Structures are given as C-alpha cells and as structure tokens.
Automatic annotation (TrEMBL):
Name of the featured protein: Aminotransferase
Any one GO molecular-function label of the UniProt entry: pyridoxal phosphate binding
Native organism: Lacticaseibacillus manihotivorans DSM 13343 = JCM 12514
Top EC class for this record: transferase
Residue spans crossing the bilayer: none
Assigned EC number: 2.6.1.-
Known cofactor(s): pyridoxal 5'-phosphate
PROSITE patterns (alphabetical): AA_TRANSFER_CLASS_1
Entry similarity comment: Belongs to the class-I pyridoxal-phosphate-dependent aminotransferase family.
Pfam family, any one: Aminotran_1_2
Length: 523
C-alpha cells in the first residue's frame, strides 16, 4: 500500500490510480493521461507487409526446402514485383507503385531500391552502413527537411534510432563520453517539458546544474499560446550554460515556438552564444502545419531528435532518428578539447579509426550506442529502417498530405469538444498540436466557481488528491504536470487516445467532481 501518493512521479501515479479501480468497475474507465495515439497509418503498413511477402518469395531459390536463400541482385526483379503488385491491388500496392516512380526521393534507381528494401525486410544482414542504410537515408532526410526544417536544404546526416527514448539516452551519453558535457555542468531546460528531461539531469552520472527557461501562457485575441519571453531566453547568455534542451512543440502544453521566439533565440545564439549546444525533440512537429524546427534556424548548434511514434501511430515500432548538420558545433568543440579530456576521448574512440580525431559526433553516437566494442554490430535493425523509409515516403507523397489533414482534424475536433465542455478559450491554431492540453485547474476553478471556493480548495486539498478523487469517484485518469515544470495545479489531458465522442465525457466528469466539491463546501 502506497501511503504518500504526492511523492509518485506522474506516470507512477497513473499506474497506481489505475490499479485502484477494480476490474468490475472499468467498463466506463477513461484514461486521458496516456499519450499513445489511437490511430494508425494503414497504407505504409500495407506496403510493408506486401514487400515482406514478395521478399520472402524472392528468397525461395530452391523449391520444397525449409531453408531459403538470401536476397541478391537479380534480373527482372522489378518486373516480377510489378506483376506481384498487379495481383495484390489496393492502397498498399498503389503506394509502392508511386514510390518506385520517384527515384529522386528513393536516392537510387527503382531496381536498386527494391533489392535493398527486400534485403532489409528479410533482416538477414547487419545494418550496413551502420549509421543509416542507403535505402532509408534519402527518404528520411527529405521527409525531415520538408516536415520539420522548412525546406531549408541543410546538408545534414541522420542516425535512425529505436524511437525517441533511445535517441535521448544516446545523446546524453555521448555528450558525456566526448566531454562536451561533464557531470555537474550547467545546462538549460525549456519548461514545461517531457518529465524525463527533468529527471535525467538529476541522475548520479550527470547531476547537472539546471537553469529553467519557462514559457508563459499568453492570451491574444481570445486564443491561448505558450511562449518564452526575451527575459527568459536571455538566461542563455550565461556562458556557463553549455547546452540547452528543448521539446518543440512542447509536452504537455502542445505548443510550438512562434517565428518571433525562434528569431529571438537565433539572435541570442549568433550574437552571444555561438558555442551553445542545443538539443531539440520535435516529435510533435508534424501536428503543426508549416512547423519550423530550431534546427532550421540554428543548424550549426542543434541536434534534432524525431520519432515517428505519435504521428503514424507507431509507438510499438520504436522508430526515430537523430539529425545533425555536417558542419556543427559538436565536432568543432571536440576538436578544441585539450589536456586530459582530449586524451580520454582519443583513447575511447581509437579502435574505430586510425585517425580518431576525425570521427564525427554522429558516428560517435553510433559507436557509443553499442559501447564501442560492439560497434561492428551497431545500427537500427534493417526491418525498422525500411519502416522508417516507408513512413517517410508516405509523408512526402500525395496521399500523405490528406493523412496529415485527417490526423490534425481528429485532434482539433477533440480539443474543440473538450474546450467547449470546460468553457476554455481556444488555442492558437497556428502553433497548437492539439495532441495534449495542459489545464491549470486552480485557474479554471477560480473562473468557474469564484475565488472564495478556489482559496478553500487550495488550503484543504492538493492536485494529487484531486486526481485520486477523479480516478476513484469519476473513473477518469489525468496526468499531473507540475513535475513537467507546469504550474502546481496543472494537469495534462491527452487528446490522442480516446474516442472523439468521449471528450465531452472527460469534461463532464471534471465538472461533476468539482460540482460535488463545491456543494460540499457551500453546505
């Protein structure tokens, strides 16, 4: 039995509250705390399984044998594949046909890409090159450039990774291994942010000194957004801050940085902090039309992390990527190391190359992901890289635009229903992902029930106690977000994982609980 629920992290509290509801009472249980989307993208998946079926047939060089061969270049494979697709007509086949007509997007001829894709999905070879398969590189880079980097045509490299969480771990570790960051160094965190970004710096192996750069809620023309003031951004002028970590669009506020905020950040870095290391997590960027990443404005200083998990409904696939410009601050700062740190870095990576000083930061990431000694077996699995290629191609081709409109439309409609039920002002649609909503319950209670009740509630209750009551009495699960850097009474409601019609119920249950509490106080 847990006695101090206030001490639990947001996700631990959610698991605890869910366990408190008996199975017999879960028929009307609404979990609006989890961020897992309840949609998937069927077309690239259909294409994936068609490719897998065809590739398996291509390995059957000897009939009536339980052992198949490998994928090797063969004449007429493309012809056989086109005949195969004609026999399996449908959206997946149509998508693959369109892909093969786009050699520029594939980065190679249709014949070469098809053979590489078949080899990848069979998965009988180590990833080579270890950093990124040639078959996946061009689709992935073009997708990131168009969806996140505002088509700036930046020259950059990519490292496909096992989802965003693996990318976070790899980046933190390699920054330490290369002495770009040392335990106890000062870093900046843009808040609110995904809770692990606040928890990782406190781990004993890092124990960073954290400067918090806080966004504030702004209501302009009746629309809500969260932005960083120039005063907050000016904290980055402190030369003791070595790195800044950003989730953009943010989790839990679901808000992207405005063009004005990006310009202010760009000016600070260019004028005062050209040495600043920036890591931006852009997993929600594709939910904002015409989104622009920090990487697009500050490519030299920025490492960009992206995951396909949310947009394509692919959390179980564990597919993401790290992008770093070919000319970057990470490489330059490693070259400037001297004394013991330089010697330690040379010694760590000397088994990779006769010239360890010339190894790029992104290749150090790849090597560190397998603790150097197992570098020969590094790289994301080849079947996962094929899925990345197909997701990327789908996002780029004609049907992908319609898919984006539908996904954004689903989230916006759920947000509209919830906001209407709670009487909240709408979010700025130009910057809002509508994937989550971060609600300050105390602010909402004050507006709905008045200051007197809000004051009594604040004295006699806590945000965690309110969440416990919502779960036990109203069978509604929300996530507390003060550990994300939000206000003490803020909660996150996911707009991704319930049926659209259920968001009216989410609002109704919140109101029902506070109506009960209000009546009790009035009585």
């Amino acid at each position: 039995m847990i006695t101090d629920v206030d001490a639990l992290s947001p996700f631990e509290l959610s698991l605890y509250l869910e366990s408190r509801v008996p199975p017999a009472e879960r028929n009307d249980w609404l979990d609006a705390g989890r961020g897992n989307p309840n949609w998937t993208a069927p077309v690239p998946r259909a294409a994936y399984f068609l490719l897998g079926d065809f590739a398996t047939q291509e390995t059957l060089h000897v009939q009536d044998s339980r052992i198949a061969g490998q994928i090797t270049p063969q004449a007429q494979r493309l012809t056989r594949f086109k005949a195969f697709l004609a026999e399996h007509q449908g959206p997946g086949a149509d998508f693959l046909t369109e892909c093969l007509s786009q050699p520029k997007l594939l980065g190679m001829s249709a014949e070469a890409w098809l053979t590489a894709a078949c080899d990848a999905i069979i998965g009988d070879n180590y990833p080579a090159p270890a950093r990124c398969l040639d078959m996946a590189a061009q689709p992935l880079k073009t997708y990131l450039d168009e969806e996140l980097f505002a088509k700036r045509a930046i020259d950059f490299d990519v490292f496909p990774v096992e989802g965003g969480t693996a990318g976070i771990c790899y980046l933190f570790d390699t920054l330490i291994h290369t002495h770009l960051l040392d335990p106890g160094d000062r870093i900046a965190l843009f808040l609110p942010t995904f809770a692990p970004y606040l928890e990782i710096p406190e781990l004993p192996q890092y124990h960073f000194d954290v400067v918090k750069v806080r966004a504030k809620q702004v209501i302009t023309k009746g629309q809500t957004q969260y932005q960083y003031s120039v005063g907050e951004l000016d904290k980055l002028r402190d030369p003791r801050i070595k790195a800044a970590f950003v989730v953009n669009p943010s989790n839990p506020t679901a808000n992207a940085m405005s063009v004005q905020t990006l310009a202010a950040l760009q000016k600070i870095v260019n004028d005062a902090r050209p040495d600043l290391l920036i890591l931006t997590d852009d997993v929600y960027g594709t939910f904002v039309p015409h989104f622009m990443s920090i990487f697009a404005t500050l490519p030299y200083n920025t490492a960009c992390l992206y995951s396909f998990s949310k947009y394509f409904g692919a959390t179980g696939w564990r597919v993401g990527a790290i992008a770093i410009a070919k000319h970057n601050v990470f490489d330059d700062q490693i070259r400037r190391l001297g004394g013991a740190p330089k010697d330690q870095v040379l010694e760590r990576y000397e088994s990779l190359s006769p010239d360890p000083e010339a190894i790029h930061f992104i290749d150090r990431l790849v090597a560190d992901s397998r603790d150097i000694a197992l570098h020969h077996a590094a790289g994301l699995s080849t079947p996962q890289q094929l899925m990345i290629a197909l997701f990327s191609l789908y996002g780029l081709l004609q049907d992908g635009a319609g898919y984006q409109q539908e996904v954004i439309g689903i989230c916006r409609e759920r947000e509209r229903i919830l906001f209407t039920a709670l009487g909240l002002p709408p979010a700025d649609p130009h910057l809002d992902t509508a994937y989550y909503v971060d609600i300050d319950l105390m602010q909402w209670v004050t507006q709905r029930y008045g200051q007197a009740f809000a004051k009594k509630l604040k004295i006699h209750s806590s945000p965690t106690q309110i969440l416990v009551q919502l779960a036990e009495r109203k069978h509604l699960l929300l996530l507390k977000t003060s550990p994300f850097g939000s206000d003490a009474w803020s909660v996150r409601i996911s707009l991704a994982n319930l049926a659209t019609s259920q968001y009216q119920q989410v609002g109704a249950r919140i109101i029902a609980l506070f109506d009960d509490l209000h009546r009790k106080v009035e009585a």
